[in-house]
Inverse folding.
């Protein structure tokens, strides 16, 4: 059984290595982290656990196929989807020509990660309030070729930037995506101006620093829709 | 000799397959097309030819190295850079561990395209007022593996969308990027709201159509800076 916060899509992935690509999201409930700026607390905090559903693999698959009867990229996210066993779901999706990727902080290595088509590991910088276990982070990447892995690091300030640089230096064969922080994920206002200003800052920082292997991106879905859920 | 409109950077590539990546732009002067919404008319229209400089390969290289003494992605753009011979420049850049990509409409196939690391072919949809020569377009892609090629098609309206779908169907092994049209490229106002609205429309269109191999992107540099030049 997998605790599911929500399964929705197709939507356009707004961030990271698959930015702009249609996908179905499978968001599991529960997380070993509590990031200060978490934008999916409804899939993290136990006080929302009453909204989560315990589904069998077949039920999860049925909801994915309902979202998209046609093969599409499926994104396992959370919470931390590494808390569950998605091995059989991934294998079944592959048989039907779906692709599967994951978004996880890299705190819980799982042998089924090697079944994934691609993987985004998003270690959390100092502004999150979390500490990174770099041994576990490294183990998470063991099963896939570096070209199929992306690091994605939220950068809210200079300390986060230094952290991102440090992590990227540890894994030079893996592409590193720097993502503008969305500091008020419960706000419903028009955030575009604030986020684009932060994007300018982050681009300038990377260019001044001559960090030419970084990729700097905003969250397109937040620019388009604000902090709405299910998009 | 190559007619150069501008060489600038490092900046962050705002669009297409290298979105978010630091790059130096080499913009040649002159174009075989006259797209209605061209956003670099100063590198296209002969009335700006007085601003273009005729540079030797060594002079072009010197300006690239001045922009970035450290290896970086170099983007050949225009105008149409296919009007010139960049073979020796690419080879020299590779010796110094720079990568080289191109942005061209695919109207002029060149044997030196096979030297490129990646290639963006941007055939122009009906709203541009141009006609596509699909034989030439196809020849442009001959020298590189499909994974290193991207189609990038501006979509202003339904006719453009249908055109993009048609082109993508012709080259199923090549990733197709759909790009929101910037309809008033000489405006200096805040375009973000208009462009994000167009992005919502284009995402909806792709999702309703279940075109799951498309990638939908805005121009990040226009969102950040408006229609400024040299960014």
């Amino acid at each position: 059984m997998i605790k599911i916060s929500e399964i929705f899509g197709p939507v356009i992935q707004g961030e990271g290595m698959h930015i702009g690509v249609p996908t179905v999201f499978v968001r599991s409930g529960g997380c070993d982290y509590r990031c200060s700026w978490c934008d999916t607390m409804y899939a993290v905090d136990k006080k929302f656990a009453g909204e989560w559903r315990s589904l069998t693999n077949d039920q999860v698959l049925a909801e994915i196929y309902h979202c998209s009867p046609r093969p599409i990229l499926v994104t396992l996210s959370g919470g931390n989807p590494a808390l569950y066993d998605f091995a059989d779901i991934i294998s079944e999706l592959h048989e039907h020509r779906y692709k599967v990727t994951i978004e996880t902080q890299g705190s819980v290595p799982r042998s089924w990660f090697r079944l994934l088509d691609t993987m985004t590991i998003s270690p959390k910088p100092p502004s999150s309030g979390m500490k990174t276990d770099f041994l576990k982070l490294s183990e998470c990447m063991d099963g896939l070729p570096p070209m199929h892995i992306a690091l994605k690091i939220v950068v809210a300030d200079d300390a986060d930037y230094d952290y991102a640089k440090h992590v990227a230096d540890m894994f030079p064969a893996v592409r590193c995506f720097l993502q503008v922080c969305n500091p008020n994920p419960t706000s419903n206002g028009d955030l575009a101006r604030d986020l684009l200003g932060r994007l300018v800052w982050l681009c300038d920082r990377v260019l001044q620093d001559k960090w030419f292997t970084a990729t700097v991106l905003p969250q397109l879905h937040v620019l388009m829709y604000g902090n709405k859920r299910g998009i």
